[in-house]
Design brief:
Blueprint lengths: L8 H4 L8 H14 L12 H8 L3 H13 L3 E4 L5 E4 L6 H4 L10 H22 L2 H16 L3 H19 L2 H19 L7 H17 L2 H39 L1
Antiparallel strand pairs: 1-2
């Protein structure tokens, strides 16, 4: 099987047609970084190049880069050897939320959309992943083991999924995955519970081991287990919300 090549900037960055140009510029740049196409130390295309690729004005791109720089995601270096350099792949949830609108009722829709997309990406990744892809997934799992701060846990957890998306070599599915992972990041960021990296890392190790077998049934079973925790959590939240709504309605009737 011929493995598709990594996308070029002309494929990775796409023309923006909506009215929320600034948010979409931030979204496309954060996708390129969160998905690992640009790692810390790498140079992004210039403001002029991004403006041309995205078909927006240079000031719009400049404003987006300024926001990312203030958040510590990129830095702008001056001079002939300068440019827009990635500082961190850990994009704050506040920036992720620029192009995500997630309402409480969309929680179920999120997990429903996530399952078929992530399942298919995992199936394709098992077919198309290179040894380098597997090594990067192992590195993301090691990052999760070492993570102590909540943001670092979320970054490593999401990076693992993005790496599966990259290994699948399916640009369209990877973009659907990005939208889902952004929505998931906004959702999880609203929770007050502590995230324990140890069980997450264990699940990642099991998923990676399954992908290495390249057996579709083994991969399907591992991904089913991988996706189950968030689905259970959201279902418990839904039941709690419905219970609170019933209590509120009952209280109103009694007054």
């Amino acid at each position: 099987m011929t493995i598709p090549e990594e996308p070029t900037p002309a494929v990775l960055f796409r023309p923006i047609s909506g009215t929320r140009a600034f948010e979409e510029v931030v979204g496309q740049i954060t996708y390129a970084i969160r998905a690992g196409y640009y790692a810390p130390g790498d140079k992004l295309p210039t403001v002029a190049e991004l403006a041309e690729l995205l078909r927006v004005s240079r000031p719009t791109v400049g404003d987006a880069v300024h926001v990312l720089a203030r958040a510590g995601v990129v830095e702008v270096r001056r001079g002939a050897t300068g440019g827009i350099v990635v500082r961190s792949g850990n994009v704050p949830a506040a920036l992720v939320g620029f192009d995500v609108e997630l309402r409480a009722r969309e929680m179920i829709e999120l997990v429903e959309a996530r399952r078929p997309v992530e399942m298919e990406l995992a199936r394709l990744a098992a077919m198309r992943a290179t040894e380098k892809d597997f090594e990067q997934m192992a590195e993301a799992t090691a990052m999760l083991h070492a993570a102590q701060e909540r943001d670092d846990v979320m970054h490593a957890e999401n990076l693992f999924h993005y790496l599966i998306g990259r290994a699948a070599r399916s640009d369209m599915l990877a973009r659907y995955q990005h939208e889902i992972l952004e929505a998931k990041a906004v959702l999880v960021n609203s929770w007050t519970v502590q995230m324990d990296p140890v069980p997450l890392a264990t699940v990642h190790e099991e998923t990676l081991a399954a992908l290495r077998t390249r057996d579709p049934e083994v991969v399907r079973a591992a991904m089913d287990n991988h996706l189950h925790d968030l689905e259970d959590t959201v279902e418990r939240m839904r039941r709690g919300r419905d219970r609170d709504a019933r209590r509120s309605a009952k209280a109103k009737k009694q007054t």
